[in-house]
Specification:
The complex is a heterotrimer.
Chain A: H1 2-20, E1 38-43, H2 58-67, E2 72-74, E3 86-88, E4 91-96, E5 102-107, H3 121-131, E6 146-153, E7 156-161, H4 168-171, E8 201-207, E9 211-216, E10 230-235, H5 238-246, E11 252-253, H6 264-273, E12 278-292, H7 303-311, H8 315-323, H9 347-353, H10 360-374, E13 381-387, H11 391-408, E14 411-417, H12 419-427, E15 433-438, H13 446-451, H14 467-478, H15 482-499, E16 502-514, E17 518-520, E18 541-543, H16 548-552
Parallel strand pairs in A: 1-10, 13-14, 13-15
Antiparallel strand pairs in A: 2-3, 4-5, 5-7, 6-7, 8-9, 9-10, 11-16, 12-15, 12-16, 17-18
Helix pairs in contact in A: 5-6, 7-10, 8-11, 14-15
Chain B: E1 3-18, E2 23-39, E3 43-47, H1 54-62, E4 69-74, E5 77-78, H2 88-93, E6 94-97, H3 111-122, H4 127-141, H5 157-169, E7 175-179, H6 187-204, E8 207-212, H7 215-221, E9 224-229, E10 232-238, H8 239-244, H9 249-256, H10 263-268, H11 299-303, E11 308-312, E12 315-318
Parallel strand pairs in B: 3-8, 3-9, 6-7, 7-8
Antiparallel strand pairs in B: 1-2, 1-4, 4-5, 9-10, 10-12, 11-12
Chain C: H1 2-25, H2 27-44, H3 46-49, H4 81-117, H5 119-133, H6 137-148, H7 152-179, H8 182-190, H9 194-230, H10 242-248, H11 258-285
Helix pairs in contact in C: 2-4, 2-11, 4-5, 4-7, 4-9, 4-11, 5-7, 6-7, 7-9, 8-9, 9-10, 9-11, 10-11
Classes of the chains: A alpha+beta, B alpha/beta, C mainly alpha.
């Protein structure tokens, strides 16, 4: 309660601050807030498309988050993402019926798309209907309970649910559930012509393979925002982008959210050469690990083999093997849920489930015993596929290969594959073991963590299927009482940790560095919402203009 | 006297092609209807400027390239071209010595192997027979006995040509085509090689077709000399006759090109010069082939081709002046 | 008995003398040969050079700088860089030598065949070679690797296919000039068949330029292997490869330079060795430089 009122005060102050600001170019307002400036960041390559409904990739979201809005958004000033921390975006306010099955959204009036078209309920219906269509959206499963979206009038919208679904609002937040203009529904999402939104920045120009430039939207519906004049996304490979950041040519090192986390050397480099930069390495809702394929038949289909393989891994060694040191991810060990989540199994519980609460020699003995029980006392051979573009994915598998060879006599060959070959094989279960991510959309809902391993889910790469687990998942999704829900979710996790369709290696850390005078809203520092993988509220970013290295190069 | 070789209207045309698909646009008439005979144990000299077709003629006779038309009768038998290997009779009886001795010898083979190769190919000799024959040949051609173990690049030019001659002689042939055998050699060695050829002829009764561009060289060795111009023979004559009474203007041109060692005689001599260059064999001049360059050309020459006829016994020529 | 022994001795003496001339006349070639022998012995007798396994992961030892225990330091997985250096020579040599062997034997034979036969056969073969030559060798190799996938055999094949048309061209042109040469004509006169001519006369005389070119290409094949591995298309991990080790540690260069220096040194060594050898081969085989 206290927090909320504080927030209101801050917001009111913020609005006043914005309104009092007159000059748009680097003018200090009474609070010391500076307007103007350019935010420069990098993405490994051009966006494949601008459809934020289809991907969790930052290559797309770093563009769409500046151009589009959601119906609601997570409070940009709070770190934690939860249903309670949702604030208005394009919807001014909303009502939830007492049975939790009907949501009525009242939209902002006088909002215009960048091309001058007025924004109405039609656009919301069009976008959300696309968002919940499994053919046109990768996140349809997360909003599956929606049965109908009805337009009451131009500025009122009613969403009907099959059952009460408390997490709905979280899933309607940007950067995923962007509201696209209905009148451009025939435009390809691969074209920059689709970049017509209601957001803080307007698309200005794009040089393919080089840079996309966005400029301030003067008609942005939050008066006074954004603070920046321009927003530029450069296409740069990451080691080079980190160098560009150190040289003051980028304001973030390199993207707003990620990629400093792929290599310890990058972190060390920034620490050494740009000591004044702020390095943010934050746990995310995603976990990385090894999926076992149940499409390919082999010894790993036996749960005892999987358990033996999981047991002998030393998580500290694994973290060092991945990145070369603990600088990137100091969190040793991980579960299906991040440990800080409510209703998540704790580290101790996970360790116990994997039999990791004993000394390594005992673990190896038990694991060997499990292997011989399964009939593989002499080991077997299998192949792991990894993406070839990020070394840590291969390193961790090489570590596993070494451990499994030495302790269980399992011959693991590691095959790095080009993305274009890797993804189709991963998505169809055409592998023995794949090292990849169990990604989440917002990283805050039990539905997402558990949902990865539901039968038939695309992200369930190994095509593992367990009836009991599926039933529990269904119950979790429908349960409104948080207490009971947590209990059900823990039961589902119990099955997951017993069956081990996926050995969790680490809770993915997303990290970047940014110039020290980069601010968000009236708050002092950039707020990184830990669980949203690719989203920062760019409308509230401003520069104090005091970081010499970065201001000099402008 | 017996005839070893008789050539009748021998022709060799090379197609001229153009473009990617190589369609034929004409012919190079390198040898255009040549007839002559070579007697056993005699030397037939063939003289002409470079490009007149004399080397091609030699190769046609050797059957290393297929003639386009005409007949070659060797030792009483008509011979034919065979794309896989030469006919057995040719391998056994007709050999060759080429202009550039160094390039005529496979640099990767020792001398012994080079000389023995024709015997090895014929296949009916054992090692001892071959060895004996080689030793005998070394003596015959004037090579040291230990030369067999050496490589061609270790020999002098004269020695190399002796090796070539030895290789030609190893099968005891009846006929050797000597294609400018001395032009690549030092003047001091030329005489030695020519004398060697002459002495070999005396010993073995071998016949030569001696091709050269230099009348002075041919003079020493030949019994009969033919002068060739642009694929045709313009004059055939016994040696002395040709030098004393040349009938064709072209022969006179060639003769006047021979330097005379005596400066007084040289001054007295009337120099006959041909105009211009040898025309291309693709577009052969009408009428008499020599008329554009002939110092004594008449109107008739460009219209009508003169007849090749016996002017005096054994002396044939082809010129309107002789009518 | 005694005589043949003496003969043998004399021959030995001659060989040693010849070797002495080689050392005296070709100091760089000698250096290349020594380097090559070192690399070769590392590849053949790797366990004699190091007791450690190149793939043995040891997490407590990550990023150790060169020391008496880790002569060349250790990498991000605690693997011994010296051991990876030694075993990396295997990959380089295996891939480099066998791809060039394959390319030069196949290219050589086809080149002689194409040059001697001539006509339409030659035309068709050479247009195919033109197509292959129209791409830079390394691009062609990358293309083939991308299609075939990563494995040692595929790497060898890719590099062999990329260099094969070059050797083909060389032997073809040599064969064509030899076809017109007087000693081939002499052989025809002597009654040699086409097959005898190609085996006894043309092929032996193609060997010198062919060998010189193949040795020179060996250096580029080492580089191509390193490049393919560098691009992640070469031999698959964890097989040690200089190119792969170099590229994977580029980001670590600042903090662990030994991870890049030693694989780089290996590549340099192999390429230098092959090029120096190739140069002196040319000197030896060039008849113009030949001493009587």
């Amino acid at each position: 309660m206290e927090k909320k009122s504080m927030l209101k005060i801050i917001m009111v102050l913020g609005v006043i601050a914005c309104m009092t600001a007159v000059s748009p170019v680097l003018a200090a307002d009474p609070q010391g807030l500076v307007r103007g400036g350019v935010l420069r960041l990098a993405s490994a390559s051009d966006a494949a498309n601008y459809d934020s409904h289809m991907t969790t990739s930052g290559r797309t979201h770093s563009h769409t988050c500046a151009v589009f809005n959601g119906l609601v958004r997570t409070d940009p000033l709070k770190k934690e993402v939860s249903a309670e921390n949702i604030v208005p975006d394009l919807a001014e306010r909303w009502e939830i019926s007492s049975d939790g099955k009907t949501y009525t959204f009242y939209l902002r009036k006088n909002v215009k798309f960048h091309d001058g078209h007025p924004f109405t309920a039609k656009d919301v219906k069009y976008s959300l209907d696309k968002f919940r269509d499994p053919k046109r959206s990768a996140f349809a499963a997360n909003v599956a309970p929606i049965t109908n979206i009805g337009i009451i009038d131009d500025y009122t919208l009613k969403i009907q649910l099959e059952y009460a679904y408390p997490d709905l609002l979280i899933f309607l937040c940007p950067p995923y559930a962007s509201i696209y203009p209905e009148h451009l529904k025939d435009v390809s999402f691969k074209s920059t012509d689709i970049l017509v939104g209601t957001g803080p920045f307007k698309f200005k120009s794009k040089v393919p393979g080089k840079v996309s430039i966005y400029e301030r939207n003067p008609d942005y519906f939050i008066k006074g925002l954004p603070y920046l004049d321009r927003y530029e996304v450069y296409s740069l490979k990451f080691p080079a982008a980190v160098d560009a950041f150190i040289g003051g040519r980028l304001d973030c090192g390199p993207s707003m959210r990620a990629y400093l986390d792929s290599d310890r050397a990058l972190v060390l480099k920034v620490q050494k050469h740009a000591p004044e930069a702020v390095i943010g390495l934050e746990p995310s809702g995603a976990s990385r690990g090894a999926f076992f394929s149940f499409v390919h038949k082999g010894p790993w289909n036996d749960v005892r083999v999987r358990k033996a393989m999981a047991m002998v891994i030393d998580y500290r060694d694994l973290a060092i093997a991945s990145y070369g040191g603990l600088e990137v991810n100091p969190v040793v060990g991980a579960g299906l849920f991040p440990f800080y989540q409510k209703g998540a199994w704790t580290k101790e519980e996970v360790d116990k489930a994997y039999g990791r609460d004993q000394s390594m020699s005992e673990r190896i003995a038990v694991a060997k015993d499990l292997m011989s029980q399964a009939g593989y006392a002499n080991g077997f051979a299998l192949e792991a596929i990894v993406r070839s573009d990020e070394a840590f994915r291969k390193n961790v598998m090489l570590y596993c290969a070494d451990v499994w060879k030495k302790s269980l006599n399992i011959d693991l060959s590691v095959t790095p594959l080009e993305r274009s070959i890797f993804f189709p094989r991963r998505d169809t279960g055409e592998f023995d073991v794949v090292n990849d991510v169990a990604n989440t959309m917002t990283g805050s809902s039990a539905i997402e963590f558990l949902g990865t391993f539901v039968s038939g889910e695309t992200r369930n790469y190994g095509k593992w299927s367990n009836k009991e687990y599926d039933d529990l998942f269904e119950k979790v999704a429908r349960e409104q009482d948080p207490q009971k829900r947590a209990e059900l979710s823990r039961q589902a996790q119990a099955i997951f940790y017993k069956e081990i369709p996926y050995i969790v290696f680490e809770g993915a850390v997303y990290g970047t560095a940014w110039r020290p005078d980069l601010m968000t809203g009236p708050v002092k520092d950039l707020v990184m919402q830990p669980v949203f993988t690719n989203y920062v509220s760019v409308d509230r970013i401003w520069f104090k203009g005091t970081a010499e290295r970065w201001t000099k190069t402008k | 006297m017996d005839t070893i070789l008789k050539i009748d209207q021998l022709k060799k045309y090379f197609p001229v092609t153009k473009g990617f698909f190589k369609h034929q646009i004409g012919n190079v008439k390198a040898v255009d209807g040549v007839s002559f005979t070579v007697e056993k144990g005699k030397t037939f000299g063939l003289v002409g400027e470079s490009g007149c077709g004399k080397t091609t003629l030699g190769r046609c006779i050797l059957q290393t390239i297929p003639p386009t038309g005409g007949k070659i009768i060797f030792d009483g038998e008509e011979i034919f071209y065979d794309s896989m290997t030469r006919q057995k009779i040719l391998i056994a009886k007709m050999q060759a010595v080429f202009q550039d001795p160094y390039n005529s010898l496979n640099p990767r083979h020792r001398v012994r192997r080079i000389i023995a190769e024709p015997l090895v190919i014929q296949g009916h000799f054992n090692r001892h027979e071959i060895n004996d024959r080689l030793l005998m040949l070394y003596g015959m051609v004037g090579l040291p006995e230990d030369i067999g173990e050496r490589y061609p690049h270790m020999l002098s030019g004269g020695q190399q040509q002796r090796v070539c001659i030895a290789r030609a002689m190893v099968v005891q042939p009846d006929f050797i085509v000597c294609d400018e055998p001395v032009s690549a050699l030092d003047v001091s060695i030329r005489a030695q090689i020519i004398n060697l050829l002459i002495s070999l002829q005396k010993r073995t009764e071998v016949s030569y077709l001696f091709i050269s561009h230099d009348l002075s060289v041919v003079h020493h060795i030949s019994d009969i000399i033919a002068v060739m111009y642009l694929g045709k023979i313009v004059e055939i004559s016994p040696k002395t006759d040709l030098y004393e009474k040349p009938m064709h203007p072209y022969t006179r041109v060639l003769l006047s090109a021979i330097p005379i060692p005596d400066p007084i005689l040289e001054k007295k001599r009337v120099n006959v010069m041909a105009k211009g260059e040898v025309p291309s064999a693709v577009s052969i001049p009408s009428g008499c082939r020599f008329h554009p360059r002939c110092p004594e050309a008449m109107k008739k020459c460009s219209r009508e081709e003169p007849v090749f006829r016996e002017v005096t016994p054994g002396h044939w020529a082809q010129c309107h002046l002789l009518n | 008995m005694n005589k043949s022994l003496q003969k043998k001795e004399a021959r030995m003496k001659k060989h040693i003398q010849r070797l002495g001339f080689f050392f005296r006349d070709e100091p760089l070639g000698t250096f290349g040969a020594v380097l090559f022998l070192i690399v070769l012995s590392m590849a053949i007798a790797s366990p004699l050079w190091t007791e450690k396994s190149p793939t043995d992961v040891s997490i407590p030892n990550v990023f150790k700088p060169p020391s008496s225990e880790f002569w060349f330091g250790s990498d991000n997985l605690g693997r011994d860089v010296w051991s990876r250096f030694v075993y990396g020579s295997r990959t380089s040599l295996l891939v480099g030598l066998s791809s060039i062997l394959l390319a030069s034997v196949a290219g050589g034979i086809l080149g002689i065949f194409s040059g001697l036969i001539g006509g339409k056969t030659d035309l068709i073969i050479q247009r195919i070679m033109d197509a292959l030559l129209s791409m830079p060798a390394i691009v062609l190799a990358i293309l083939i690797m991308a299609v075939l996938g990563t494995s040692v055999l595929n790497t060898i094949l890719a590099i062999a296919v990329a260099y094969f048309p070059r050797i083909n061209r060389l032997t073809r042109s040599t064969a064509i000039s030899l076809r017109e040469s007087l000693f081939v004509e002499s052989a025809i006169v002597a009654g040699a068949s086409k097959i005898r001519i190609s085996i006894m006369h043309v092929a032996p005389n193609c060997i010198a330029p062919w060998l010189v070119y193949a040795t020179a290409l060996l250096g580029t094949a080492f580089l191509a292997e390193a490049t393919l591995s560098f691009l992640g298309l070469g031999v698959p991990p964890p097989i040690p490869s200089w190119g792969r080790d170099l590229s994977e540690n580029l980001t670590n260069f600042e903090f662990a330079p030994w991870l890049c220096i030693f694989p780089g040194l290996g590549i340099t060594m192999a390429v230098f060795a092959a090029n120096f050898l190739g140069d002196s081969m040319r000197n030896i085989f060039d008849p113009r430089l030949k001493k009587a």
